[in-house]
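The instructor's notes for this session suggest beginning with a concrete chain rather than abstract definitions. Hand out the sequence below and ask the class to guess, before any prediction is shown, which regions might be ordered.
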Amino acid sequence: MTPEDLSRLRYAKELLENPGLAAKLTNVIGMPFEKAFDYLPTKWTGAIQSITQKSLHHALDVAIKTIDHNDKKSSSDKLHKFLAAASGGVGGAFGLPALTVELPITTVIMFRSIADIARSEGEDVQTIETKLACLEVFALGGCSDKDNAAESGYFAVKALLSKQVSEAAKYIVEKGIAEEGAPALVRLIATIASRFGATVSQKAAASAVPVIGAAGGALINSIFMDHFQNMARGHFIMRGLERKYGVDLVQIEYGYRKNSQLLKKQ
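After discussion, reveal the predicted structure:
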Protein backbone atom coordinates (compact mmCIF):
# COMPACT_ATOMS: atom_id res chain seq x y z
CA MET A 1 0.00 0.00 0.00
CA THR A 2 1.40 3.40 -0.95
CA PRO A 3 2.17 5.98 1.77
CA GLU A 4 -0.67 8.17 0.43
CA ASP A 5 -3.19 5.33 0.67
CA LEU A 6 -1.96 4.37 4.14
CA SER A 7 -2.56 7.94 5.22
CA ARG A 8 -6.09 7.82 3.76
CA LEU A 9 -6.76 4.55 5.56
CA ARG A 10 -5.65 6.03 8.91
CA TYR A 11 -7.87 9.05 8.27
CA ALA A 12 -10.83 6.76 7.52
CA LYS A 13 -10.20 4.75 10.69
CA GLU A 14 -10.08 7.91 12.79
CA LEU A 15 -13.45 8.98 11.39
CA LEU A 16 -15.10 5.58 11.75
CA GLU A 17 -13.91 4.62 15.21
CA ASN A 18 -14.13 8.02 16.95
CA PRO A 19 -17.51 9.54 16.05
CA GLY A 20 -18.00 11.46 19.35
CA LEU A 21 -21.57 12.60 18.62
CA ALA A 22 -22.73 12.64 22.26
CA ALA A 23 -19.75 14.75 23.31
CA LYS A 24 -20.52 17.36 20.64
CA LEU A 25 -24.19 17.47 21.60
CA THR A 26 -23.24 17.94 25.25
CA ASN A 27 -21.56 21.23 24.31
CA VAL A 28 -24.79 22.41 22.66
CA ILE A 29 -27.21 21.57 25.48
CA GLY A 30 -24.87 22.72 28.26
CA MET A 31 -25.41 19.76 30.58
CA PRO A 32 -24.22 16.14 30.94
CA PHE A 33 -25.76 14.41 27.95
CA GLU A 34 -27.32 11.60 30.00
CA LYS A 35 -29.61 14.17 31.67
CA ALA A 36 -31.06 15.14 28.31
CA PHE A 37 -32.78 11.76 28.08
CA ASP A 38 -34.88 12.74 31.10
CA TYR A 39 -36.70 15.17 28.80
CA LEU A 40 -37.47 12.41 26.27
CA PRO A 41 -40.88 10.77 26.93
CA THR A 42 -40.75 6.96 27.22
CA LYS A 43 -43.31 6.54 24.46
CA TRP A 44 -40.92 8.15 21.98
CA THR A 45 -38.57 5.15 21.98
CA GLY A 46 -40.95 3.08 19.91
CA ALA A 47 -42.02 6.07 17.85
CA ILE A 48 -38.42 6.86 16.89
CA GLN A 49 -37.87 3.32 15.58
CA SER A 50 -41.01 3.58 13.45
CA ILE A 51 -40.05 7.00 12.10
CA THR A 52 -36.48 5.93 11.27
CA GLN A 53 -37.63 2.87 9.30
CA LYS A 54 -40.07 4.92 7.22
CA SER A 55 -37.48 7.66 6.70
CA LEU A 56 -34.79 5.25 5.49
CA HIS A 57 -37.16 3.46 3.12
CA HIS A 58 -38.27 6.74 1.58
CA ALA A 59 -34.75 8.17 1.34
CA LEU A 60 -33.27 5.10 -0.37
CA ASP A 61 -34.94 5.76 -3.69
CA VAL A 62 -35.67 9.49 -3.56
CA ALA A 63 -32.33 11.09 -2.70
CA ILE A 64 -30.09 9.52 -5.33
CA LYS A 65 -32.30 10.58 -8.24
CA THR A 66 -31.06 14.18 -7.88
CA ILE A 67 -27.35 13.35 -8.19
CA ASP A 68 -25.38 13.61 -11.41
CA HIS A 69 -23.25 10.46 -11.33
CA ASN A 70 -20.99 11.86 -14.08
CA ASP A 71 -20.08 14.88 -11.98
CA LYS A 72 -16.43 14.67 -10.90
CA LYS A 73 -16.31 17.62 -8.51
CA SER A 74 -15.87 17.25 -4.76
CA SER A 75 -18.92 16.62 -2.58
CA SER A 76 -21.13 19.52 -1.47
CA ASP A 77 -20.81 18.89 2.28
CA LYS A 78 -21.43 22.50 3.36
CA LEU A 79 -24.58 22.83 1.25
CA HIS A 80 -26.11 19.68 2.71
CA LYS A 81 -25.13 20.74 6.22
CA PHE A 82 -26.89 24.08 5.65
CA LEU A 83 -30.04 22.33 4.41
CA ALA A 84 -30.04 19.98 7.41
CA ALA A 85 -29.56 22.94 9.76
CA ALA A 86 -32.56 24.70 8.18
CA SER A 87 -34.67 21.58 8.68
CA GLY A 88 -33.49 21.30 12.29
CA GLY A 89 -34.29 24.96 12.91
CA VAL A 90 -37.93 24.39 11.96
CA GLY A 91 -38.04 21.26 14.12
CA GLY A 92 -36.46 23.08 17.05
CA ALA A 93 -39.03 25.84 16.85
CA PHE A 94 -41.94 23.42 17.21
CA GLY A 95 -40.34 21.01 19.72
CA LEU A 96 -40.15 17.23 19.90
CA PRO A 97 -43.50 16.48 18.16
CA ALA A 98 -42.05 18.02 14.98
CA LEU A 99 -39.62 15.08 14.76
CA THR A 100 -42.20 13.09 12.79
CA VAL A 101 -42.04 15.72 10.02
CA GLU A 102 -38.46 16.94 10.39
CA LEU A 103 -36.64 13.57 10.54
CA PRO A 104 -37.85 12.22 7.16
CA ILE A 105 -36.76 15.49 5.51
CA THR A 106 -33.40 15.47 7.28
CA THR A 107 -32.86 11.80 6.40
CA VAL A 108 -33.39 12.46 2.69
CA ILE A 109 -30.93 15.38 2.84
CA MET A 110 -28.44 13.16 4.70
CA PHE A 111 -28.86 10.32 2.22
CA ARG A 112 -28.23 12.69 -0.65
CA SER A 113 -25.09 13.98 1.08
CA ILE A 114 -23.89 10.42 1.71
CA ALA A 115 -24.46 9.53 -1.94
CA ASP A 116 -22.67 12.73 -3.00
CA ILE A 117 -19.66 11.72 -0.90
CA ALA A 118 -19.80 8.23 -2.42
CA ARG A 119 -19.70 9.77 -5.91
CA SER A 120 -16.76 11.99 -4.96
CA GLU A 121 -14.87 8.88 -3.80
CA GLY A 122 -15.30 7.15 -7.17
CA GLU A 123 -18.55 5.20 -6.65
CA ASP A 124 -21.24 4.87 -9.32
CA VAL A 125 -24.29 6.02 -7.36
CA GLN A 126 -26.67 4.56 -9.94
CA THR A 127 -25.77 0.96 -9.06
CA ILE A 128 -27.75 -1.05 -6.51
CA GLU A 129 -24.51 -1.94 -4.71
CA THR A 130 -23.65 1.72 -4.06
CA LYS A 131 -27.22 2.63 -3.10
CA LEU A 132 -27.16 -0.04 -0.41
CA ALA A 133 -23.64 0.99 0.65
CA CYS A 134 -25.07 4.50 1.20
CA LEU A 135 -27.82 2.98 3.32
CA GLU A 136 -25.22 1.12 5.40
CA VAL A 137 -23.76 4.44 6.56
CA PHE A 138 -26.80 5.03 8.77
CA ALA A 139 -25.77 1.98 10.84
CA LEU A 140 -22.25 3.31 11.47
CA GLY A 141 -21.19 5.28 14.51
CA GLY A 142 -24.47 4.67 16.29
CA CYS A 143 -23.26 2.51 19.16
CA SER A 144 -24.81 2.78 22.58
CA ASP A 145 -23.35 2.25 26.03
CA LYS A 146 -24.59 -1.35 25.83
CA ASP A 147 -22.36 -2.11 22.85
CA ASN A 148 -18.77 -3.23 23.19
CA ALA A 149 -15.96 -2.71 20.70
CA ALA A 150 -16.49 -6.11 19.09
CA GLU A 151 -20.15 -5.29 18.37
CA SER A 152 -19.85 -1.68 17.24
CA GLY A 153 -16.57 -1.53 15.27
CA TYR A 154 -16.66 -0.76 11.55
CA PHE A 155 -15.96 -4.26 10.29
CA ALA A 156 -18.29 -5.80 12.88
CA VAL A 157 -21.18 -3.68 11.60
CA LYS A 158 -20.32 -4.57 7.99
CA ALA A 159 -20.29 -8.26 8.88
CA LEU A 160 -23.67 -7.88 10.61
CA LEU A 161 -25.18 -6.35 7.47
CA SER A 162 -23.32 -8.36 4.83
CA LYS A 163 -25.82 -11.18 4.25
CA GLN A 164 -28.84 -8.88 4.36
CA VAL A 165 -27.23 -6.43 1.92
CA SER A 166 -26.52 -9.30 -0.49
CA GLU A 167 -30.08 -10.63 -0.25
CA ALA A 168 -31.56 -7.13 -0.70
CA ALA A 169 -29.38 -6.44 -3.75
CA LYS A 170 -30.44 -9.73 -5.37
CA TYR A 171 -34.11 -9.03 -4.69
CA ILE A 172 -33.94 -5.49 -6.07
CA VAL A 173 -32.17 -6.63 -9.26
CA GLU A 174 -34.83 -9.28 -9.84
CA LYS A 175 -37.99 -7.41 -8.80
CA GLY A 176 -37.11 -3.73 -8.41
CA ILE A 177 -36.61 -1.35 -5.51
CA ALA A 178 -40.11 0.13 -5.57
CA GLU A 179 -42.07 -3.05 -4.85
CA GLU A 180 -43.99 -2.66 -1.61
CA GLY A 181 -43.05 -4.98 1.22
CA ALA A 182 -39.90 -6.38 -0.42
CA PRO A 183 -38.96 -8.79 2.40
CA ALA A 184 -35.17 -8.71 1.96
CA LEU A 185 -35.15 -4.90 1.86
CA VAL A 186 -37.54 -4.64 4.82
CA ARG A 187 -35.23 -6.85 6.92
CA LEU A 188 -32.15 -4.81 5.97
CA ILE A 189 -33.82 -1.48 6.73
CA ALA A 190 -35.10 -2.80 10.07
CA THR A 191 -31.57 -3.82 11.08
CA ILE A 192 -30.08 -0.49 10.02
CA ALA A 193 -32.94 1.44 11.64
CA SER A 194 -32.28 -0.24 14.98
CA ARG A 195 -28.78 1.29 14.99
CA PHE A 196 -29.73 4.56 13.31
CA GLY A 197 -32.53 4.89 15.86
CA ALA A 198 -29.98 4.92 18.69
CA THR A 199 -28.30 7.93 17.09
CA VAL A 200 -31.65 9.60 16.37
CA SER A 201 -32.55 9.12 20.05
CA GLN A 202 -29.46 11.13 21.00
CA LYS A 203 -30.51 13.90 18.61
CA ALA A 204 -34.11 13.78 19.90
CA ALA A 205 -32.99 13.91 23.53
CA ALA A 206 -30.83 16.97 22.83
CA SER A 207 -33.71 18.63 20.94
CA ALA A 208 -36.11 17.89 23.82
CA VAL A 209 -34.19 20.10 26.27
CA PRO A 210 -36.59 23.05 26.86
CA VAL A 211 -34.08 25.84 26.18
CA ILE A 212 -32.96 24.58 22.76
CA GLY A 213 -35.38 26.40 20.43
CA ALA A 214 -34.90 27.00 16.71
CA ALA A 215 -31.24 28.07 16.86
CA GLY A 216 -30.31 25.06 18.96
CA GLY A 217 -32.29 22.74 16.69
CA ALA A 218 -30.38 24.05 13.67
CA LEU A 219 -27.03 23.52 15.40
CA ILE A 220 -27.99 20.01 16.53
CA ASN A 221 -28.95 19.04 12.98
CA SER A 222 -25.71 20.51 11.66
CA ILE A 223 -23.75 18.31 14.10
CA PHE A 224 -25.98 15.34 13.20
CA MET A 225 -25.21 15.84 9.50
CA ASP A 226 -21.49 16.30 10.15
CA HIS A 227 -21.48 13.00 12.06
CA PHE A 228 -22.88 11.01 9.15
CA GLN A 229 -20.78 12.84 6.58
CA ASN A 230 -17.73 11.68 8.53
CA MET A 231 -19.08 8.11 8.62
CA ALA A 232 -19.73 8.25 4.88
CA ARG A 233 -16.27 9.63 4.06
CA GLY A 234 -14.59 6.90 6.08
CA HIS A 235 -16.83 4.17 4.66
CA PHE A 236 -16.24 5.06 1.01
CA ILE A 237 -12.51 5.59 1.47
CA MET A 238 -12.43 2.04 2.86
CA ARG A 239 -14.46 0.67 -0.06
CA GLY A 240 -12.11 2.34 -2.54
CA LEU A 241 -9.04 0.88 -0.84
CA GLU A 242 -10.66 -2.57 -0.72
CA ARG A 243 -11.29 -2.42 -4.47
CA LYS A 244 -7.67 -1.42 -5.06
CA TYR A 245 -5.85 -3.71 -2.62
CA GLY A 246 -8.33 -6.40 -1.60
CA VAL A 247 -10.23 -6.82 1.66
CA ASP A 248 -7.54 -8.90 3.41
CA LEU A 249 -4.74 -6.38 3.16
CA VAL A 250 -6.96 -3.43 4.05
CA GLN A 251 -8.23 -5.20 7.16
CA ILE A 252 -4.68 -5.96 8.28
CA GLU A 253 -3.48 -2.38 7.75
CA TYR A 254 -6.59 -1.15 9.58
CA GLY A 255 -5.59 -3.33 12.52
CA TYR A 256 -8.71 -5.49 12.40
CA ARG A 257 -6.84 -8.67 11.48
CA LYS A 258 -3.41 -9.68 12.74
CA ASN A 259 -2.51 -12.43 10.28
CA SER A 260 -3.46 -13.39 6.77
CA GLN A 261 -2.70 -16.14 4.30
CA LEU A 262 -2.27 -13.34 1.78
CA LEU A 263 0.75 -11.94 3.61
CA LYS A 264 2.24 -15.40 4.24
CA LYS A 265 2.37 -15.95 0.49
CA GLN A 266 4.16 -12.64 -0.12
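Then share the key points. The chain has a mean pLDDT of 77. The chain has one domain: 3-265.
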